Each structure stands twice: as C-alpha cells, then as structure tokens.
C-alpha cells in the first residue's frame, strides 16, 4: 500500500505514514474530503481486511487527485482481474513506473530482453 512520509516540524525528523487508530477516526477525518485522508482511511480498512470498502475510499481519493490512492486503487483492480481499468489508473499516475505498468497491463509493452537477462552478482 502506498502512503507518503510526513515531515515533522524539523526537516531532520521524519515519521512514517500511519493509518488512523480506528475506522471511526478515519471516517471523521475523511469527511473533510482531503484526498490524503481518503487514502489513509482506505489503507486502514484494507489492513483490517475490508478490501472492497477500502477500494471505495481509494477511488474517492484517486478521483480527487491523490497519487497514492491511484496506486492503491490500481493494485486493488489488478487483484480483481480488472487490468484495463488498473492500467488507466497507472497511466494517470504517470512517470516511468506508471507508464510501464500501464503498458504491461494493456499488453502493449515491448519487453527489454537485455534488462530481463541481467543477473545480480
């Protein structure tokens, strides 16, 4: 699941993304419509085993432009076998990784045989 590191008051103090303590706290925070909070609630629900409900919150966050929610939704869709829609979300994320994943899911990726043949020392 995707979430961002959060900056504390000083740049040298970083904390990991953490979901809400409870679903009710998450729903309260997500009610404000913040895309990041929508994604955080989805993460909490997914961790608790509520994948379908989590996907609804990921979709809301993704529709609002949260890149982490887009990635989480795309991963959920892949698990459901909905590769075409997952590819669209990866395409919206953009960047080299998003474009590569979208192309592979769409079946339009050219395989780089040299990259596949690399071996670790």
Number of strands: 2
Regions with little confidence, pLDDT below 50 for 5+ residues: 5-16, 113-121
| CATH structural architecture | Alpha Horseshoe
List the helices and strands in order.
Answer: EEHHHHHHH
The helix/strand class is: mainly alpha
Helix content: 55-70%
| N-to-C CA distance | 30 Å
Number of domains in the coordinates?
A: 1
Count, helices: 7
Q: Which of globular, elongated, flat, extended, rod-shaped describes the shape?
A: elongated
- If strands are numbered along the chain, what order do they take across the biggest sheet? 1-2
Q: What assembly state would you assign to the polypeptide chains in this entry?
A: single chain
* Largest sheet composition: 2 strands, antiparallel
Name the average pLDDT: 78
Name of the CATH first level: Mainly Alpha
Q: Bin the strand percentage.
A: under 5%
The radius of gyration computed from the alpha-carbon positions, rounded to a whole number of angstroms, is 17 Å
* Name given to the CATH homologous superfamily: Tetratricopeptide repeat domain
Q: Which fold name fills CATH's third level, the topology?
A: Serine Threonine Protein Phosphatase 5, Tetratricopeptide repeat
């Amino acid at each position: 699941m995707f979430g961002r590191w959060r900056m504390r008051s000083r740049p040298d103090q970083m904390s990991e993304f953490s979901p809400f303590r409870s679903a009710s706290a998450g729903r309260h925070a997500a009610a404000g419509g913040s895309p990041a909070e929508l994604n955080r609630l989805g993460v909490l629900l997914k961790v608790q085993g509520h994948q379908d409900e989590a996907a609804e919150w990921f979709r809301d966050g993704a529709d609002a432009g949260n890149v982490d929610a887009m990635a989480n939704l795309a991963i959920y869709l892949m698990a459901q076998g909905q590769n075409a829609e997952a590819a669209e979300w990866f395409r919206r994320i953009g960047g080299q990784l998003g474009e590569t994943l979208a192309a592979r899911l769409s079946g339009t990726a050219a395989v780089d045989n040299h990259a596949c043949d690399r071996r670790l020392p």
